[in-house]
Amino acid sequence: MSNTPVTIIKGDGIGPDIVNAALRILDVLEPGLDYEEVKVGQAALDDGESDVVPQSAIESIERTGLVLKGPVTTPSGKGYRSVNVAMRKHFDLYANVRPTLSMPGTKSRYNDLDIITVRENKGGMYSGEGQTLSADGTRAEALSVITREQCERIIRFAFDMARARGRKKVTLAHKANIMKSTSGLFLAVGREISGEYDDIEHDEVIVDACAMKLVMYPEQFDVIVTTNLFGDIISDLCAGLIGGLGLAPGANIGEDCAMFEAVHGSAPDIAGKNIANPISVVLASALMLDHIGQPDNAARIRKAVRAAVADHDRTTPDLGGDGSTDSFTDAIIERLG
């Protein structure tokens, strides 16, 4: 049987440090992967490319249909376009999946959470459509567009995923009381589709109330499905409940391509210092193994990570330890079993 090709994007800042850690762990498992490394973002520009998503990267991803990615810098305000948004649009990665699972041994608000946020990945305000600024700099505008097709795809994806994973409830988070067109369409489609899934409980919550309830009573949530901008915020909030973005992997799923990534920033201030926590991208690699039909290897990674953190074995400074990226990766590898 031939190996599975996967495009590797190490990213910017701490990206190479933590992606290399994930690759070390994968190599121990021998999952039969062939790596194709490409550069995007600032790393591509530094390498002489004229675009943050060069053609060589696009061609590799089109060949493999599978990506493991580190964090990529996106400047706030002015600067080059978002690599993540560009890749989601180009490869039609319409579903963003962010698991939030409590991990023993971390400083967090709660110790028993297991929530999945499913976010529509291409439409809405987050897509960046129609952005204008008046010549005198006093008026800014942006366009929010979401289609019935986008709503149907993401909501059905959430219910199908919930059913496949044995989940009990799907919550639609919206702002249809005020945004009666865009959120109103999302809510209306959700009500239609939920009727097709009698085995899964369905409820609805206004997004600001959702944020409050997540902070106060997060145990009531199982799977949350929502639109692009709301999902970006809610998924980060959920990560904060379990100890931060360093513990939260992400997946971007389309019909023909899937990208698995660390969801935190590139942290240029600690790049190259060998102290970055690799958990986010390591757990993203486990999501990738699930996706390609290797759940046993994925489970081995998760079990090893959780055990190393629970034992406080060579953990990185953000986890309260004095270990390095390399030494913490060693601790995980020793527990792979």
From TrEMBL:
<dbReference type="Pfam" id="PF00180">
    <property type="entry name" value="Iso_dh"/>
</dbReference>
<dbReference type="GO" id="GO:0004449">
    <property type="term" value="F:isocitrate dehydrogenase (NAD+) activity"/>
</dbReference>
<dbReference type="InterPro" id="IPR024084">
    <property type="entry name" value="IsoPropMal-DH-like_dom"/>
</dbReference>
<dbReference type="InterPro" id="IPR019818">
    <property type="entry name" value="IsoCit/isopropylmalate_DH_CS"/>
</dbReference>
<protein>
    <submittedName>
        <fullName>Isocitrate dehydrogenase</fullName>
        <ecNumber>1.1.1.41</ecNumber>
    </submittedName>
</protein>
<feature type="domain" description="Isopropylmalate dehydrogenase-like">
    <location>
        <begin position="5"/>
        <end position="332"/>
    </location>
</feature>
<comment type="similarity">
    <text>Belongs to the isocitrate and isopropylmalate dehydrogenases family.</text>
</comment>
<keyword id="KW-0560">Oxidoreductase</keyword>
